[in-house]
Amino acid sequence: MNDLKSVAVSVLRAFRPEAVLVLGSGLGALAERVQQAVRRPATDIPGVAAASIAGHTGELICGTLAGVRVALLSGRTHVYEGHALQTVVRAVRVLLAVQPKLLVLTNAAGSIQRDMKPGDLMLIADHLNLSGGSPLEGPHTADCGERFPDMSRIYPAAVRNCVRRVADARGLLLREGVYAMLRGPQYETPAEVRMLRILGADAVGMSTVPEAIVAAQMRIPVLGISMLTNLAAGVSRLPLSHKEVLECGLVAGNTLADLIEHSLRDAVTATEASV
Questions:
Q1: How many domains does the chain have?
Q2: Which CATH number covers residue 17?
Q3: With CB atoms 3.0 to 4.6 Å apart as the test, which of 22, 34, 96, 135 could cross-link to 85 if both were Cys?
Q4: CB neighbours of 209 closer than 8 A, spacing ≥ 6?
Q5: 242 is catalytic
């Protein structure tokens, strides 16, 4: 048993999740739906830093969701808190070492497109890593995956289609697009938002991409969903605030939780065809 997997087995205490989930700012509603939940601080995972941002409780929750065994991180740490990218992804890397079938990443993001409004949900079809770095930098060990992993199929269409079917059945408008990550913590300038639109981004945030890169390296398919909490700078004339992000999460968070809960089983099953 390699070192990374040994750490994972110790942290999970013989629990074997089929899916690992990470909840973004203000999106904790899903955590309350986990059954037979065992909760403890995410800092119980060696090398994981404490979350310090409002809307991130910093818990590791193990249990079942819609009949799927899950390990759920309620909140995450960010580069802008002063952490290295390797520290930001530490919790996800450890949990993925036991080879779950799916990683679900959620975030709060700003909309770059005028027809995508606050409260809308967006399936992530691809991403732009504009963080200025990679969580794969530095010393490499074989238990982390390939040194030069392919990034062309991080978000499989078969997995996204499972979520879209649930959304269609419920009459829920579900967007799809490209998510761009910048380091933050400042919000983007109008000029930066115009740049992102030219590059092909539909939404922008300060997370998610490092975890998705690690999952691709470890050959774990990713389901990514952004909750659009605000119009980005220059798209809206209003000033941006984290308070607005959290308030939108309270309103639309349950919709996102419903969508994930009712599509999770099929999404996990679909990964078998996507690897």
A1: 1
A2: 3.40.50.1580
A3: 135
A4: 127, 128, 129, 131, 179, 181
A5: yes
Catalytic residue list contains 262 = no
Read off the pTM: 0.92
Concerning whether 127 is annotated as a catalytic residue, the answer is no
Q: Is 102 strand, coil or helix?
A: strand
* Cα dist from 73 to 62, 105, 191, whole Å: 9, 10, 34
- Is the Cβ–Cβ distance between 204 and 112 less than 8 Å? yes
Q: Render pLDDT for 121-171 as a digit per residue (tens, 0 to 9).
A: 999 999 999 999 999 999 998 888 999 999 999 999 999 999 999 999 999
Tell whether omega for the bond before 156 is within 30 degrees of 0, i.e. cis. Answer: no
Displacement of CA 109 from its chain's centroid (Å) = 11
| 134 in active site | no
Domain of 268, in residue numbers: 3-274
Q: Which of 74, 107, 111, 230 is catalytic?
A: 230
Q: Is 56 a catalytic residue?
A: yes
Return d(Cα 235, Cα 221) in angstroms, integer.
32
**Residue 80 falls in the annotated catalytic set:** yes
Q: Give residues with Cβ within 8 angstroms of 256, minimum separation 6.
A: 27, 29, 30, 106, 121, 225, 227
